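Late entry, evening session. Most of the bench is empty. Finally got around to the prediction I had been postponing all week. Sequence below, unchanged from the version circulated by S.P.
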Amino acid sequence: MTLCLAVKAMLTEFKIKSSKLKNEKPKIVTNLSTTQALKDICDGLGAELILTPIGEINVSKKMMEVNALAGGEGNGGVIIPAIGYGRDSLTGMAVILNYLCQSGKKISELAQEIPEYKVIKDKIEFSPDIQLNAWYQKLKNLFSKAKVNQEDGVKFSFEDSSWVHVRESNTEPIVRIIAEAKEIEKIQSLIKKVKDS
């Protein structure tokens, strides 16, 4: 929840400071496997969420390109351009501590305000038999009603806010399968469909 809390804090502050600037829409950048909760927060506070391939460098480059207010990755790495374009845990802590002071709430209360999604991270061993492009095409046929993003593997986003992201790892000989939804059964179903295809 670190990135969600930090972004919500910054967008709330931005909204207060720029209430007279009707056309200004702040941009937040994160990677494709970050929780849907961040999109919900951005939508609720009038910000545009921009997704990039996995990796801090991809997020940072896009942030520079679009002049983002903030960004980071779902692992808790917060990036604030006013401080620098690298993940900074101290910056994230400072933003959240300031948010606590401004809100007068406990951290548990602020956390309860973040939309709740469940996530499962799975994997399969990568082997020469796996033809990724052919597999991705099979998945596109299987999830034909989903919105598809192919910037980093293939991510399918559904109307009920659930999603599944399938991508070759940059660091291990595996294919990662990450799925998120409000109900655990939906996630299990998505992962099973991917693995059975």
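Two things to note before I forget:
Strands lie at 27-31, 48-52, 70-72, 78-79, 118-125, 147-149, 154-157, 163-168, 174-181.
The first helix runs from residue 2 to 17.
Will write this up properly tomorrow.
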